[in-house]
Fold Two-component system response regulator.
Amino acid sequence: MAHILIAEDEEGIARVVDRGLRADGHRTTVVTDGIAALEAASGGQVDLVVLDVGLPKMDGFTVLRMLRTMDEPVPVIMCTARDSVEDTVHGLENGAEDYLAKPFRVEELRARVKLRLRQHAEAMAGGRTEDVLEVGGVRLDIPARTVHVDDEPVELSAREFTLARELMDHAGQVLSRDQLLDRVWGFEVTGSSNVVDVYIRYLRAKVGAERISTVRGVGYRFER
């Protein structure tokens, strides 16, 4: 099974998470500050990180940002008592694969760990085979992670790129918010959350609002 790093300074939470993940057969390492988390997560030593935001010495957002700056592809699940949409977007924007607000059920964390490990394995194995997507003047070079709109280069964040790729993969089709949450974020968000709408707004600003239509009460469609 996987080697999972648990970066959590609350002893009780760390103990429960550690016990739950070990019950699934995973090998775990527990650290209690951000510097130790960054060191342990670097260099391909672990398969997934459960990362608390409020760590001493270096907060979880900084750990995540530095991991992504170093091009560490390890999946990260953020765990924090802060559950606002802004904090969720901030974590995902900086490269987290998932986000759990405390208090959470360890069963939910175990399910998300299983999902993220599977998705990461599929991605590393090259689950999709196309190298370039081109729809309606937008061109995504998948291996190079570059985007051109009407032949002009455009900068997309990692999450915006994944969202654009999903929409363009299904150009002409309507994708619901739930489908986008599952395929881009890999988890369910309560109906009151507007994280999908926030990212659609970001993406429209960069590729052109006319290219992404809203189908009221259903979802979004990338126009051919």
